[in-house]
Structure formats: C-alpha cells, structure tokens
C-alpha cells in the first residue's frame, strides 16, 4: 500500500471550510468602458513576477466579467482599503446589483488601458490580458501590468489600510507589536 492511498478523499465542503481559514487581500477586478463596465470582488489574485510585472487572477467561468475581459483585452486589479468593505459586498453581488449598476458605488476613473480604476484603492494594477489557462470551473487569467495607481499617503500606517477576508468576515491586518 502506498502512502498516497492512505490519504482520505477531501470533500468539496471540507476543502471550502479549510480555505476559509487563511486571510486574503480583497480586490475588485474591473473592465469595460463607461456604461458597459463589469466587475467583481476577488481574493484569488496573485503576484506572479516583477520582470515583467505580472499578476494572475482566478475567475469563475460563469462570471459576467470573463467575456468582457477577453473581449477588451485589459482589466484592473484594485486592492481595497478597509473602509471599502461595503464596496466589496456590492461587487460580490450581495445586494443584487449587476454590471454597470455596481459602479454607482465608489469613485472610478479610467486607467491607461481603458479599464476602470478605483481611486480609493490602496493599490491598483492596470493590466493587459497576456494569456489564459482554463480549468473546469475557473479561468486563470495572466495580466501584464502596464501601470500602477497608489493611494496617496494617509495618517493611518500602510499595513493597516488594506481590506482582508477571513472565515467569512471582512477585517483589517494588525501588525504584531
Ligand atoms: C471575499 C470574496 C472573494 C471572492 N473571490 C472570488 C474569486 O477569487 N473569483 C471569483 O470568480 N469569484 C470570487 N468571488 C465571488 C464573486 O465576487 C461573485 O460571485 C460575484 O457576484 C461575481 O460577479 P458576477 O455575478 O457579475 O459574475 C468572491 C466573493 C467574495 C465575497
């Protein structure tokens, strides 16, 4: 008997419960021109490389934003500040708003690629779609970062500014003394 055969199968429920434990930064991914903008809240966002500056996102295949990201060839990744937990809920569809209606919340500008950029974000990455890998449930999108937008200084220390999500709750990071 091999060691592998002793490992019990992991159910989807067990997997989801375990994945609730790590804390993650919260971002809103957005694409599209004014009037046809789409966006969603995401935690499956990862820094890939600094040379060239690259980022990857894992987006549900049925998401309304996936088609427009492919068609536009660009998107922004906006890491939220802790005061934007309400915005995260809106872009997660929790109040039923969809598409352009979500953008009534937050102050949105236009990045160099044409993607919407959230002015209150702690850091925004303006990305050109580089390539895509498909899994049965999600698309893994690789973005080449063409521009950065950083929030100007606030009195609050930088580590405490970002919005994080853990065990189903939004919160903020607290540095160890
Ligand atoms: C904290 C949090 C993190 C999420 N992370 C992701 C993610 O990484 N990828 C994803 O496809 N959906 C993620 N979602 C779900 C989407 O935000 C949600 O399904 C949204 O309504 C999709 O937009 P759409 O209905 O316009 O497609 C997350 C939701 C929350 C609340």
Explain how this protein is built.
The chain is mainly beta and 177 residues long. The chain has a single domain, classed as Electron Transport, Fmn-binding Protein, Chain A (Pnp Oxidase, Chain A, Roll). It has three helices and twelve strands; from the N terminus they run αβββββαβαββββββ. Strands 3-2-6-9-10-5-4 form a seven-stranded antiparallel sheet, with helices on both faces. The protein has a three-stranded antiparallel sheet with strand order 1-11-12, with no helix packed on it. It has a two-stranded antiparallel ribbon with strand order 7-8. The longest helix has 8 residues. The radius of gyration is 17 Å and the shape is globular. The structure holds flavin mononucleotide (FMN). The site of flavin mononucleotide has 16 residues, from strand 3 and strand 5.
């Amino acid at each position: 008997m091999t060691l592998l055969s002793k490992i019990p199968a992991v159910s989807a429920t067990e997997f989801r419960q375990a994945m609730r434990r790590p804390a993650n930064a919260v971002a809103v991914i957005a694409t599209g021109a004014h009037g046809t903008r789409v966006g969603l809240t995401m935690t499956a966002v990862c820094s890939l490389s600094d040379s060239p500056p690259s980022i990857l996102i894992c987006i549900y295949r049925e998401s309304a934003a996936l088609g427009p990201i492919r068609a536009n060839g660009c998107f922004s990744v906006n890491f939220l500040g802790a005061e934007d937990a309400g915005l995260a809920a809106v872009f997660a569809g929790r109040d039923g708003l969809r598409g352009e209606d979500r953008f009534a919340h937050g102050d949105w500008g236009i990045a160099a690629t044409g993607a919407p950029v959230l002015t209150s974000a702690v850091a925004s990455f303006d990305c050109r779609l580089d390539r895509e890998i498909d899994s049965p449930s999600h698309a893994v999108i690789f973005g080449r970062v063409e521009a950065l937008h950083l929030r100007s200084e606030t009195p609050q220390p930088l580590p405490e500014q970002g919005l994080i999500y853990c065990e189903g709750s939004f919160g903020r990071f607290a540095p160890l003394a």
